[in-house]
Specification:
Blueprint (H helix, E strand, L loop, with lengths): L2 H32 L3 H13 L2 H14 L2 H18 L6 H28 L6 H29 L4 H22 L14 H9 L1 H15 L4 H11 L1 H5 L1 H26 L1 H20 L5 H27 L7 H30 L1 H23 L5
Helix pairs in contact: 1-4, 1-5, 1-6, 1-7, 2-5, 2-15, 3-4, 3-5, 3-15, 4-5, 4-7, 5-15, 6-12, 6-14, 9-15, 9-16, 12-13, 12-14, 13-14, 13-16, 14-15, 15-16
């Protein structure tokens, strides 16, 4: 396994400890501390899910053209780190939205250059495993973050400011690791990325068109994690008492399954594993919508959600990275991530409206039925994309 992959995994681990400390308490902070409604929370969650779409292609393209994606990634990680400390001055919906926007813009800038570095440092036959290793380290941090937040809230009730300060410190350590230890090597085999006009034609061409449509369709029916956790909290006392740790259950499942699913994708096909992940998500919706509460149903929902991410996140990046020229790999990956982010932005707004209009359980059922129809359509779109 390439050292670059491990080092980037450590950077992501530290960054996710930081980000998930905040994310784990954000739904409660917004709805209980600041006092915004569910539809307003849907807007913030939509920003969280989708605003990075506006700069993902820009980040990938900048890394490809310069052939030095490390510095683009440093910029993105730095913006996200600064957003953690900025949470200290939030107290209104507008302020929270601005800080969340800055954090997600940082994520959008850094993600494609980082993934391009992973793809460049990996053997093509082991791409799924490399992305799985990275996502496993990333997810270890994502699992640790909520536990740190839970411990801080236990020690300092309503100590949200303490969480924000510690989150900032951890994020800065991640930026330091990236700056000091990750090699600043050229990517793309020494070729600069395609000019913008040619690149746009390549993105709209037959190699990427159907995968992007499939990713967008399925992303539109992916309910934001925060909504799913709020739904579980409203259903039973177990989820309400353990709310900050719900993220841990999801991330532990992701951690355990990321590498096995990456290897499975290398062996049987990345498109098949990607679609299979959405089948797991469909089952998770069914468990979350069930009228029966309790720890078993909650844990099952969390495990299935984590399995979905393990089968879709890195697998989609690995799939798309082989459908574009090496010198434009970052932009190709960013294109898929942009489509997914925009789709999830729309999904959060839609689900917030469905919850308000129909109710928690009914909204989940509607989305689950739509996803059951969309999965076969996605399968048809992805047929034959891997040669």
């Amino acid at each position: 396994m390439a050292t670059t992959v491990i080092l980037l995994g450590i950077v992501s681990l530290l960054t996710d400890v930081s980000s998930e400390m905040v994310n784990a308490v954000l739904p409660l902070y917004l709805t209980a501390e600041i006092g915004i409604g569910l539809f307003a929370y849907g807007f913030v969650d939509g920003v969280y899910q989708g605003v990075s779409a506006f700069v993902r292609i820009l980040g990938g393209y900048a890394g490809d053209r310069a052939q030095r994606p490390k510095w683009v990634a440093v910029f993105g990680y730095g913006i996200s780190a600064l957003s953690r400390i900025a949470m200290l001055w939030t107290g209104t919906l507008a302020a929270v939205t601005a800080v969340v926007t800055a954090d997600r813009l940082g994520k959008g800038v850094r993600t494609a250059p980082r993934d391009a570095m992973i793809a460049d440092a990996s053997d093509p036959s082991n791409l799924g495993r490399s992305f799985g290793v990275h996502r496993a380290l990333d997810t270890f941090g994502a699992a640790a973050g909520p536990m740190v937040a839970f411990a801080l809230l236990w020690a300092v009730p309503r100590g949200y400011d303490v969480i924000f300060v510690v989150s900032f410190a951890v994020a800065m350590v991640g930026v330091a690791v990236l700056l000091l230890f990750v090699p600043n090597r050229k990517v793309g085999g020494g070729k600069a990325g395609l000019p913008l006009k040619k690149l746009m034609r390549a993105i709209a061409g037959p190699a990427l068109r159907r995968p992007l449509i499939a990713a967008g369709l399925l992303g539109l029916l992916t309910v934001g994690d925060g909504f799913l956790y709020l739904s579980l909290q409203r259903r039973d006392d177990f989820a309400a008492a353990m709310f900050p740790l719900l993220y841990v259950g999801t991330n532990l499942a992701y951690l355990v399954l990321a590498i096995p699913f990456g290897r499975l994708a290398d062996r049987i096909g990345r498109a098949k594993v990607f679609l299979g992940g959405h089948v797991l998500l469909l089952v998770a919706y069914g468990f979350a919508a069930a009228p029966i509460g309790g720890w078993a149903w909650t844990i099952a929902s969390l495990v299935l959600l984590g399995a979905f991410y393990a089968a879709s996140d890195g697998v989609l990046a690995a799939l798309v990275s082989r459908l574009v020229p090496a010198e434009s790999r970052g932009t190709g990956i960013a294109s898929a991530q942009t489509v997914v982010a925009l789709a999830r932005f729309a999904s959060s707004l839609l689900f917030g409206a469905l919850w308000v209009g129909l109710g928690r359980q009914e909204a989940l059922v509607v989305v689950a039925v739509a996803l059951a129809v969309a999965i076969p359509v996605g399968g048809w779109l992805l047929r034959g994309v891997e040669r």
